C-alpha cells in the first residue's frame, strides 16, 4: 500500500482523529491514557463483550458505549479501531474493522499464525486502510541507539545476539481468565504472550533469521501452552542467537537483550543500556548507562504508558501526513512468524529454515 493511496483516507490537520476501543480490560487503559496525551485525538466509542466494563470506560471518557462490535464499526465518527481483546480475537476483529473502512491499531500479537497475519495484510491492502501493531519498545532511545550501533559496525562483526525473558506469572494469572495459556486464544505461552516484544526487538536490531531450533515445555503451570522455552537462531548476517522465555521462574528477571561482537558488546535491561564496551574505550557521548525500574517480568501491568504514547503519536502523525506508518502489518508479522517457527521446531524436533511456508503441526 503506497502513501499516495493512503492520502485519500487521511484526516486533515484540523480534524480530530477519533478512536474506538474494542476490549475494555486492563490494556485498554494504556491506549486511552496514551491518547489523552496526544493533541487533537479523542476516543469516540468503546465496546466490550461484558457491557458494564464498556459502560464504565465510556463514562470516564465521555464516549459512546456500543452494545455490539458491529454497532461500533457502523459509527461514522470513528476513524481508528484499537483492538485490546484476547489474542485469538485480534486478527478476526481487525479484518472486520478494515472491511468496515476503519484504520486499525492491534495489540500484540497481531495474529496467531503467519497465515492469519497474511489475511490481515490482505484486508488492509484491499480496503486501503492502515494497520499499526503495538510494538512500543522499539521507540525507546536505548533500543534505537543499539540498532544504530549494530548497523554502523560499532561492535565490529556481531557474532551473538540473545534475548532473555525469564518472567514469572502466578497460578492466579492463568486461572483468572479462561483464554490465557490456550493454543486457540493465546496462540502460545511464555514466548507468544510475554516474549513477543523481546522477539520483535531482536529482529528489529539484527534483521532476518536464517534458521531456528527450539524446545518448549510446560514445566510448572497447568496450561496447554509452554511456560518454559529455549531456542537457538542463526541470523542471515551469520550471527548466532539465543531466545529464552518463561513464566515459570520466581520471582522473574528483567528482560535482557545482549549484543556481542568482535570489537564490542552491549546489554539492555528492559529500556536502559547498562553495559557498553568497545575497543575504542570511551563511552559514546549519546550513550547513557543505567538500570531499569520496569518490573513487568513480575507484574504484567508494571510498565508505563510512555511507549504507547510515542507509538500512537507517530501513528497519528503518519495518518495526517500520508506517510507510511512504521510498524505496519508486515512488520507485525515478523515476530509472529519467528515464534511460530520456534513452536514448529519444538513440535517436530527439527530446525526450521527461512523462507518458511508457515505450515504448522497441530499442538
Arrangement of strands in the largest sheet: 13-12-11-7-10-9-8-14
Count of helices?
13
CATH class of the largest domain: Alpha Beta
Helix content: 25-40%
Secondary structure category: alpha/beta
Shape: globular
Radius of gyration: 20 Å
Q: Can you count the beta strands?
A: 14
How many structural units, i.e. domains? 2
CATH topology of the largest domain: Dihydrodipicolinate Reductase, domain 2
Strand content: 15-25%
Q: For the report, how would you describe the main beta sheet?
A: 8 strands, mixed
Q: Give helix and strand order, one letter per element, not per position.
A: HEHEHEHEHEHEHEHHHHEEEEEEHHE
Mean pLDDT across all amino acids: 95
Compute the separation of the termini in Å: 35 Å
Map the helices and strands.
Blueprint: H1 3-6, E1 17-22, H2 26-36, E2 41-47, H3 51-61, E3 64-65, H4 69-74, E4 80-83, H5 90-99, E5 103-106, H6 114-127, E6 131-133, H7 141-151, E7 158-166, H8 171-175, H9 183-186, H10 190-194, H11 196-206, E8 209-217, E9 228-235, E10 240-246, E11 256-261, E12 264-269, E13 272-278, H12 306-321, H13 329-348, E14 352-353
Parallel strand pairs: 1-2, 1-4, 2-3, 4-5, 5-6, 7-10
Antiparallel strand pairs: 7-11, 8-9, 8-14, 9-10, 11-12, 12-13
